[in-house]
Design a protein that fits this description.
mainly alpha, 131 residues, elongated
């Protein structure tokens, strides 16, 4: 007499058969050459940056590639300038006053408010030019 197969054995056999079929499909797909449609190249006008043709080719390729726009994970804008060139210059972009000191002290001429002097200068300039 034949042994009765248990439910567990039946499931194992079915799973093996299914896995074997799936593996065969994957292997067949991997053996087939990849048929990819060639992407149309963007026609970009080549610029002349320098007299050196090799350098021009490299610079044009870099400009077309565009990876340089997102160095550091995202696009660099003036808001992120201090990350790129350092805090000292970044403060200028964000309108924060830089700290200038001579021997640990801020010079007096940097503390003075020159708005009135500028207004007077502009008024004199208008009078002189007859406006």
């Amino acid at each position: 007499m034949k042994k009765k197969k248990t439910t567990k054995q039946i499931f194992r056999q079915i799973v093996r058969e299914e896995v074997a079929m799936a593996i065969k499909e994957v292997i067949t797909e991997l053996k087939q050459p990849i048929e990819s449609q060639p992407q149309p190249k963007k026609i970009i006008e080549k610029k002349s940056f320098t007299n050196n043709s090799v350098l021009n080719d490299v610079l044009n390729e870099t400009a077309q590639d565009g990876e340089w726009k997102t160095l550091g994970g995202s696009e660099f804008t003036s808001d992120r300038m201090n990350e790129l060139i350092g805090r000292q210059y970044g403060d200028m972009v964000t309108n924060q006053s830089p700290t200038i000191s001579v021997d640990g002290q801020t010079p007096d001429f940097l503390k003075k408010d020159y708005r009135e002097v500028l207004k007077k200068s502009q008024e004199k300039s208008k009078i002189k030019n007859g406006r």
